[in-house]
Design a protein that fits this description.
The protein has helices spanning 44-47, 55-65, 80-92, 112-120, 128-144, 150-160, 198-208, 212-217, 236-248, 278-291, 304-311, 327-332, 351-358, 362-368, 373-386, 435-454, 457-462; strands at 5-8, 36-42, 69-76, 97-101, 124-126, 162-164, 168-170, 178-181, 190-194, 225-232, 257-263, 266-273, 296-298, 317-321, 342-347, 391-397, 412-419, 424-430. It has 475 residues and is of the alpha/beta class. It has three domains: 1-30 and 224-301, no CATH class; 35-217, MoaB/Mog-like domain (Molybdenum Cofactor Biosythetic Enzyme, Chain A); 304-462, Maf protein (Alpha-Beta Complex). It has a six-stranded mixed sheet with strand order 3-2-4-9-8-7, with helices on both faces. It has a five-stranded antiparallel sheet with strand order 1-11-12-10-13, with helices on one face.
Length: 475
């Protein structure tokens, strides 16, 4: 089972489409006028995986904020026919808006501008003011680098100043301009053409969204609300069952677009809806809370990392970790301001380091083994004492792919979190996945144990871990 999977929650048998899988329909709440958009990411380097696409998801989120239903993200290589076909396909699906990224550079394979012009039935024209502006941007580059071919740069400059006739030009952030191309015939989509580098695309998007052509294309856009709840220690299948039961009991889930996602060992339930569906959304959340009170840890979308950071206010935490190799310390310090609560950490990988730097008794390691609840406790206590912290974390396990035994298989990880003064939670769990999954999930388990330690005692005693080894709980 891999993380970062996102899918619409399953609908009850015989009910037709899956809950949330309503992209083919007008949108949540049954709206028939809400504009829909497609995102077209260009570039063979993106298509082949040399560069990961960062623009598609970012643009989708911005469209959602504008009340536009982002119905598709497509990636095509630098082939004119493929790019034109993708534009035509999106137009045939009735999209009011198409947003492209990439293909606006000076090289021969940068073809987005001319293909968009062909698609829109417009000629390519030279904008002399734009050519002059790009020349001003390039001038410092030409003086800084010796031996540049100024004529080649001039030709490239001219290529980037060729734009579809009638387009609204977006001022370059780098050297490539963007533009917004309105339709030439009724029913044709408006095309927003943006450069590929995110540092250029993102500020240019804000300008594009203010243009008259963009506002015309998105007229009638609704307002979307998004709610997120998070659970830990529950499989996706159980959430799918809860949604089936909710619909069977008459909750108006058809007004909601519900997506479940397994992320870092947690279940995220994200719901998008229009303001008129506020009551069905609240009823859904009440239904989830009533069925999963022991595993629901966030009603407002806050992450466990955010909650732990808040709970650590006034405390200092220290880490001694083995199989996670520094990932726990990295996760605790990934937030700005973490110096207010993170004292320090040590990667105690070898038994000698466990003993010499953290003070774990070598005889204890010899007797029970490095991967054990007892050693996890000694690591947590040792970290707390070594760094003079208020809270200690100890992690030891078998991340694999080798090193496992029948008694201690790959995926077995032992955790302990403790507070100065005696409170402690120690657990062992059999975690699924490959080495990267096990190490990453270990940090998630630790964050949840830390949250339980620092919050309500009754909760931390009674809530088991997913994959918990029987008889491993020590509080």
């Amino acid at each position: 089972m891999s993380d970062e999977r996102s899918r619409p929650a399953q609908a009850p048998a015989g009910s037709g489409d899956a809950l949330g899988a309503r992209a083919a329909a007008p949108g949540p709440g049954g709206s028939t006028t809400n504009p829909r958009a497609g995102i077209l990411v260009t570039g063979t380097e993106v298509l082949t995986g040399i560069i990961s696409d960062r623009n598609g998801p970012w643009l989708s989120a911005r469209l959602r904020e504008s009340g536009v239903d982002a119905a598709a993200i497509e990636i095509v290589g630098d082939r004119p026919d493929d790019l034109l076909h993708a534009l035509e396909s999106m137009a045939q699906r009735g999209f009011a808006l198409i947003v492209t990224s990439g293909g606006l550079g000076p090289t021969a394979d940068d073809l987005t501008a001319e293909i968009v012009a062909q698609f829109s039935g417009r000629e390519m024209v030279l904008d002399e003011q734009l050519e002059q502006r790009i020349g001003e941007i390039l001038r410092p580059l030409m003086t800084r680098w010796r031996g540049l071919d100024h004529e080649a740069i001039r030709v490239s400059n001219r290529k980037q100043a060729l734009v579809p006739a009638g387009a609204t030009i977006l001022e370059p952030v780098g050297t490539a301009p963007g533009f917004v191309v309105p339709p030439t015939t009724p029913g044709q989509p408006t095309v927003v053409v943006l450069p590929g580098p995110p540092g250029e695309l993102q500020p240019m998007w804000r300008t594009a969204a203010q243009t008259a052509a963009f506002r015309d294309a998105t007229a009638g856009a609704t307002t979307y609300r998004t709610g997120i709840v998070r659970l830990f220690g529950i499989p996706e299948s159980e959430i799918a069952n809860t949604l089936r039961l909710a619909e069977a009991e008459g909750l108006a889930l058809e007004q909601l677009e519900i997506t479940t996602c397994l992320r870092r060992g947690e279940i995220e339930v994200a719901t998008r809806y229009e303001p008129a569906a506020e009551e069905p959304y609240e009823r859904l959340i009440e239904f989830i809370a009533s069925r999963h009170a022991d595993t629901l840890f966030s009603l407002d979308g806050t992450t466990v990392d955010e909650q732990v950071a808040e709970l650590l206010a006034g405390h200092m935490v220290a880490v001694a970790e083995s199989c996670t190799g520094g990932l726990m310390s990295a996760r605790l310090t990934s937030r700005a301001g973490s110096s207010a609560y993170f004292a320090g950490g040590v990667v105690a990988y070898s038994n000698e380091v466990k003993a010499e730097l953290v003070g774990v008794d070598a005889e204890l390691i010899e007797r029970v083994g490095a991967v054990s609840a007892e050693v996890a406790e000694a690591l947590a206590s040792g970290a707390m004492e070594t760094f003079g912290a208020d809270v200690g974390i100890g992690i030891t396990g078998v991340a694999g792919p080798g090193g496992g035994t029948a008694e201690k298989p790959v995926g077995l990880v032992c955790f302990s979190v403790c507070e100065r003064g005696g409170a402690r939670i120690t657990r062992s769990a059999q975690l699924p996945g490959d080495r990267a999954d096990i190490r990453d999930r270990s940090t998630t388990v630790t964050m949840h144990l830390l949250r339980r330690l620092l919050s309500d005692e009754d909760e931390r005693v009674r809530v088991p871990l997913p994959g918990e080894v029987e008889g491993s709980s020590r509080t």
